[in-house]
Amino acid sequence: MSGPLTVIDMHTGGEPLRIVTGGYPELPKGTILEKRAYVRDHLDHLRKILMFEPRGHQDMYGALLVEPDLPGADLAVLFMHNEGYSTMCGHAIIALGRYAVDQGLVPAGEDVTVVNIECPCGMVRAEVAMRDGKPAEVSFESVPSFLFAKDKALTIGNWGKVNFDIVYGGAFYALADARQFGLKFGRDPVTAFVEAADSLTKAAQAAVPLSHPDASDLAFLYGTILTDGRDAFSEQPTRNVCVFADRQVDRSPTGSGVTARLAAMQARGQFAPGQERIFLSIIGSRFSGRVASVTQAGPHRAITATVSGRAFYAGKAEFIVEEDDPLAEGFLVR
């Protein structure tokens, strides 16, 4: 590392986003997936410095802005976390929409500012609502999302038979009712949800082969979303928690997770275009979501979803590494 790493920290619904503003070397030209592979294979020590302790923590999340490759993109982003690099992140899109306006990366509109963000899963359109000339709520329309595998069942540890779906919302998730694990939101500790979700993720990874019509790099199970079981449309909010990567817990309702839930609901006839639902996180923060369009993704009947939330600044920092620091590249204790 030749110089300091500079960052701006934000959060969306309590979920952190560390935006890299300096210190990375220039990346080779190529597609966003090629850039993702290059960063993974050659610059992963920088991810660990920023995500791991003592500068980060087990549940830190990051965004590296890179040169766009798709026509019409205002910016492109690589997402990073405690295990590696994801393909889509809704809470990051919401934060980056505001960030792009604040930093002048796109000219601000009067009522709404559109920010086209190239992600590893494809182009995502963010709309930033302007209030008194400043960005407020941010909405994004997802990439085509679909129910990949319906009504799967596996025997999981001491819990026995667990029913679940596999759904794509920019990343693949196992989706299951938390009550099958004897869990209730607001009563049971987060650690219990983590143990259940991680166990299902590992079992499903071994049992259910994945494929994506656009790219093989997208075909991996990112994590598990446990829900309160309130899938049928209702005026009442529904709650979920996403456990992804290496047992990382999303504090927000999870933008790509809300998209995945909407895709599953629509496929089961529980949701229709135009209806809006409130999704709550493990800490009670909220996103709203609705089906924006019905479309196709290869052989899959799919939707695009509109997900909305707010992001806020938390700070900025400059990180250095001393040459003789034995813990230079960071560590995790959990």
Short description:
The protein has 334 residues and is an alpha+beta fold.
What does this protein look like?
This protein is 19% helix and 39% strand. By secondary structure, the protein is of the alpha+beta class. The chain folds into two domains: 5-141 and 313-318, Diaminopimelate Epimerase, Chain A, domain 1; 146-308, Diaminopimelate Epimerase, Chain A, domain 1, CATH 3.10.310.10. It has a 17-stranded mixed sheet that branches. A hairpin with a 2-residue loop joins strand 6 (122-131) and strand 7 (134-141). The chain is globular and about 50 Å long.
Residue share in helix: 10-25%
In the CATH hierarchy, what is the architecture of the largest domain at level 2? Roll
What is the CATH fold-level name of the largest domain? Answer: Diaminopimelate Epimerase, Chain A, domain 1
CATH superfamily of the largest domain: Diaminopimelate Epimerase, Chain A, domain 1
Largest sheet: 17 strands, mixed
CATH classification, class level of the largest domain: Alpha Beta
Rg (CA only): 19 Å
Q: What is the residue-mean pLDDT, rounded to a whole number?
A: 96
Alpha carbon gap, first and last residue: 26 Å
Strand content: 35-45%
Count of domains: 2
Shape: globular
Low-confidence stretches: none
| Strand tally | 17
* Tally of individual helices: 5
Secondary structure class reads alpha+beta
The succession of helices and strands, N to C, reads EEHHEEHEEEEEEHEEEHEEEE
